[in-house]
Structure formats: structure tokens, C-alpha cells
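[job 4471] stage=fold_predict status=RUNNING
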Amino acid sequence: NAMLVLRPADSDETTAAWKLAMENTVSPTGLIFSRQNIKTLPEGTDYSQAAMGAYVVAGSDDDYDVILLASGSEVATLVAGAEMLREDGIKCRIVSVPSEGLFRTQPEEYQKSVLPCGVKRFGMTAGLPVTLEGLVPACTGKVWGLRSFGFSAPYKVLDEKLGYTGQNVYNQVKAML
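[job 4471] inference complete, writing C-alpha cells
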């Protein structure tokens, strides 16, 4: 069986991911963590949904213009960007994707309930863009990611230089809509 890979967005999602890892008896599990202090996702987020591989984060707008999706520490960056977008009247759905592989095993009905067709999508990853391009086809939006590795600096400096900020989420989505 393929490895179960989990990249949790905050400490609470890490607890859910750890539970999934302990319950997984059919394949190896890889847990990918961040070294930074990460803001907790909005209050009311149902972390048990991490078991579905991707889910809608609490505080998302019902009647949304764009879907923002990421895994790991980038989910908190999307939350910051969404706050700025909402000030401009752009409504956002934020989706945490701790495991694209697990999400793809869910019934198609569930997948479409989280990522419905016909809505613009913006993905953010600290890895290669290809890691999210399956969930953000070019025709629906774009993925912000890294084309190379090996940068060394304090993470806040790198986040600014490489565009992992709420302001860049805002800029990219505004340019897309």
C-alpha cells in the first residue's frame, strides 16, 4: 500500500493526524511537521474531519467567490489572506488538505462538497506547485509554490522574500478574480 502522508496545519490538527497514524495498520505513515510557531485555525474547526484528507475550515463564507487551499503552516497564511480579501468584499472558503492521498479515496460526492466545480481556486504550498496542482487545475486557478529548495534564513525573512504572507495571498487572488 502507498504511504499515508499527513501534513497537519496546527497543533490540534496534529493530534488528529497522530490518531490517524496510530490507527493506520495497512501502510507506513509519514507525518510532516513545521518548526515554526503556527497560529491555530479559527475556533470551531472540526479537526475530526482531517480523517477525510481535506475539509472546510471554520469561519469560511457560505456564499464564496474563491476557494483557498493548502496544507501545513500555509493554511494559517491563507486565513490571514482571507481576512484581507473579505475587507474588499471577496468571500472565501478555506480548505485544509492534510492528506491529498486520503482525500482522493473519499467518495466523489464528498470531494465535490469540499471542492465544488466552477469555483476559482488558489493553492499555496511550501513545496513544488505540482503537489497541489491535482486539486487546483490551471483552468480553475493557480498554485503558489517553490520551484527550488535550499534557501537559508530565518523563516520570517524567507516567508517575506518567497511570498508566504497574507498580503501575497491577497495579491495573487485579486489578480486572479
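[job 4471] summary: Strands lie at 4-6, 29-31, 55-56, 66-70, 92-96, 120-124, 141-144.
[job 4471] exit 0
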